Amino acid sequence: MLQPIIEVNNLTFQYDQRLEDKVLSDVSFSVQKGEWLAIVGSNGSGKSTLAQLLVGLYSSLLGSIHINGIELNETSKWEVRKQIGIVFQNPDNQFIGSTVQDDVAFGLENINMPYEEMQVRVEKALELVGMTDMRLYDPSRLSGGQKQRVAIAGILALKPSVIVMDEAFVMLDPKSRRSLLNTLHQLKEKEQLTIISITHDMDEAATADRMLLLEAGKVKEIASPRHVFQQHTNLEPPFAERLRRKLSSKGASVPSTYMTEKELVQWLW
Ligand code: ADP
């Protein structure tokens, strides 16, 4: 069995250590290289906190996190951050450069990358997120969705092994969202990029390899989307599954169990 790229063991965390109720309690899971894990759960269930712990922005109270075999702690976190990047919901907090391309280059400048290589990386990253034409724009004047794309480009340029996205697609229009999701799926296939995506979009979560359902700071389930949507009927299912249920309730002879979009389309044809 391969060593997982992320291994979380019995993680327990509280912002205010005087409080008894924990934000995360005894959270354990692992993620394989090249896997896409969607983290879902209601507001306040601890998803963002978990994301920030994974990239070393906070230290855990109890338990451990290993990234690529390195235990995350105060000393190792700088080394670990070269391998794991995070994109937040609100990209305004992440801009530093005066043009889009400067901004994407910022992380690379920090690691003293030679200029020619940096240019190639920035160009490629802007292309991946469809922002090449806006390379000379002032980032502060972009729309929310464009800012999110630039923030994602800044992380992709660093070529991390793992990208953590904390609702990083919320401001994207449906077309850009679909295109970026396709790009990330391709990077996962071609370059074994590991993706951890916190999302409320169940259509997106349904395309992940596995879903982690958090409930009040505890792992309620970690399994395939099919299993999660079958077992947790309180979760709003993806569109295809809603349609299957609707067709079934109208008496259509659809299969009686969960169907992915692809399966439903094949069945309808
Ligand atoms: P989610 O991302 O699932 O909505 P969060 O991780 O943001 O959940 O929040 C989990 C809990 O931690 C909530 O009760 C929230 O109020 C609390 N919390 C989040 N951030 C902070 C913070 N910086 N300081 C104190 N409490 C926080």
- Bound compounds: adenosine-5'-diphosphate
Q: What portion of the residues fall into strands of 2 or more residues?
A: 15-25%
User: What is the radius of gyration computed over CA atoms, rounded to a whole number of angstroms?
Assistant: 20 Å
The percentage helix is: 25-40%
Largest sheet, spatial ordering of strands: 6-7-8-3-9-10
State the end-to-end CA separation: 40 Å
Low-confidence stretches: none
The beta-strand count equals 10
Provide mean pLDDT, rounded: 92
Largest sheet data: 6 strands, mixed
Enumerate how many helices there are, as a single number. 10
SS content category:
alpha/beta
Could you spell the SSE succession in H and E letters? EEEHEEHEHHHEHEHEEHHH
Overall shape: it is globular
What does this structure look like?
- The chain has a domain of 32 residues.
- The protein has 10 helices and 10 strands.
- The chain has a 6-stranded mixed sheet, sandwiched between helices. A 4-stranded antiparallel sheet has the order 2-1-4-5, with helices on one face.
- The chain is globular and about 65 Å long.
- It starts with 5 loop residues before the first strand and ends with a helix.
- Helix 3 packs across helix 4, helix 3 packs parallel to helix 5 and helix 4 packs across helix 5.
- It binds adenosine-5'-diphosphate (ADP).
